[in-house]
């Protein structure tokens, strides 16, 4: 695997401290969405289907850094939307790095050449460039030709300037193991510092609802991929070995939704990065007020086929700390690609899905209008006082 020693020591120490102090639930990675506006419309994305009033909202520098301090996670992953559209993003990144938190800035790279001069290489900073496979696979996924080539050039540019660069890739039903393996070979030759890989999550608002993987197909696909790369050891992954082992069906894991809490323009999102079933105003409210037992594989229909890293990486990391010999075995021997799958969690008694997106959007729009009205009233009152004083 290709996680820097600095990461391993700091994050491992953080996790160990939580366990020694008996803290049951703790954040590992803060998922920050400072905006939902994007300059692409990917077929598998369910993050940008909002009215303009919401797409135009931004987290301020103060709110973004306040969330970092409030949460306390050692890693901050900035997603969106497209973060490079945020004019204050360099200041946000600088503030996170100054706190000695690891910051991963996700981008489709269309603006990277234009914006890269606003950022400085640091052991705490990583570009994570979106690439969902080879040229044809990626350009299809983002619904635009030429994006793959621009992303590859952006990788070369960032590496030439001394940045740590990883890629994040999502695969869907119909993906071919041999093409994925060849793609991993290609990005390895490009010199990327690591690959973050995940099966696509079935967002209810994604344009393409026909090509999400179920659990069985996910396990089969990743076994087929890792088999072509010495159990995955041929390539550098920016993920724990036990999470990759889980993708190949060798671990029975429940998700850890509080491990990757999400702060976006609405507030703190319940219960996880993938599901928006309401928001609260503080991290404390999120951690203490969410009915965590209501979510997860076998508990809620929307979670049934999820094997995404933002839900299960924290589980794998905790398992690595509890049972380091398991992690060592995968690191040395690679992911097992033959034999029986580990037992899976039954999903037949999961509670039905609740579809609350429209209601949440309407609630947000109503609150925005009320806030704007109060702001106008306050300005009018101040203006009236100023006039009276004259």
Architecture overview:
- By secondary structure, this protein is an alpha/beta fold.
- It folds into 2 domains: 5-353, Aldolase class I (TIM Barrel), CATH 3.20.20.70; 356-390.
- It has 14 helices and 9 strands.
- The protein has helices spanning 5-20, 52-55, 61-71, 89-98, 112-115, 135-141, 147-160, 177-190, 215-227, 241-247, 283-289, 309-322, 324-333, 357-389; strands at 29-33, 75-78, 102-107, 125-130, 164-171, 194-199, 262-264, 267-271, 276-280.
- A 9-stranded mixed β-sheet has the order 6-5-4-3-2-1-7-8-9, with helices on both faces.
- The chain starts with a helix and ends with a helix.
State the fourth-level CATH superfamily of the largest domain: Aldolase class I
Indicate the structural class: alpha/beta
Q: What is the helix tally? A: 14
Strand order of the largest sheet: 6-5-4-3-2-1-7-8-9
DSSP E strands, number: 9
CATH hierarchy, class of the largest domain: Alpha Beta
- What proportion of the residues form beta strands (DSSP E)? 5-15%
Low-pLDDT ranges: none
| Count of domain modules | 2
* CATH architecture annotation name of the largest domain: Alpha-Beta Barrel
Write down the oligomeric state: single chain
How many angstroms does the end-to-end distance come to? 70 Å
Mean pLDDT: 92
